[in-house]
Specification:
Number of strands: 13
Distance between the termini: 27 Å
Order of helices and strands: EEEHEEEHEEEEEEE
Strand content: over 45%
Oligomer: single chain
Radius of gyration: 18 Å
Shape: globular
Largest sheet: 4 strands, antiparallel
Strand order of the largest sheet: 2-1-5-6
């Protein structure tokens, strides 16, 4: 996917995130969602019509041309960042568990992956998280089933269910 206005391409991403609502709506195997970080230059409070198309083509997505308004990040910093956000990129997983963590910039993070019985499978400590902290766990040799990923930063904790195929 690439995102653009007029003749300016602002960036691209891969549509490979699983969402059960896409699967239930008959959209293939459900692995067609995407996440796109809006470039800082567009975070100026101006409303633009952002279009999305298949990368390297002229094929626009259905309903492309959504209005986008992003405030200045300096203004948002006082409001945002207080909520710890954890997102698994692709769920169920088969060989790699990829996770995207926001809202803990500069803070320490503790990640714990446990099986459904509560047994610790893997863990790690991050001293100072990036604005968007991305981590991966190898689960290739783990049995299929339900796992729980617990991410903690200070007093904030988020637990996410992960299905291993």
């Amino acid at each position: 996917m690439e995102f653009y206005t007029g003749s300016t391409v602002w960036g691209s991403t891969v549509a490979n995130i699983y969402r059960v609502d896409l699967l239930n709506a008959g959209k293939g195997n459900g692995v067609h969602a995407y996440s796109f970080e809006v470039p800082a230059v567009l975070k100026d409070g101006v409303t633009r019509s952002i279009r999305a198309r298949v990368l390297g083509s002229t094929y626009d997505l259905k309903d492309s041309g959504k209005p986008l308004t992003c405030n200045n990040p300096a203004r948002l910093s006082a409001e945002a960042g207080s909520e710890l956000q954890v997102r698994v990129l692709g769920n169920p997983v088969s060989t790699q568990l990829l996770v995207d963590i926001r809202g803990a910039e500069g803070q320490s993070l503790r990640l714990q992956l446990s099986d459904a019985s509560g047994r610790l499978v893997d863990q790690r400590q991050i001293e100072a998280a990036k604005p968007v902290e991305q981590q991966s766990f190898s689960v290739q040799d783990k049995p299929g089933g339900l796992y729980l990923l617990r991410v903690s930063s200070g007093q904030k904790t988020v637990t996410v269910k992960v299905v291993k195929q």
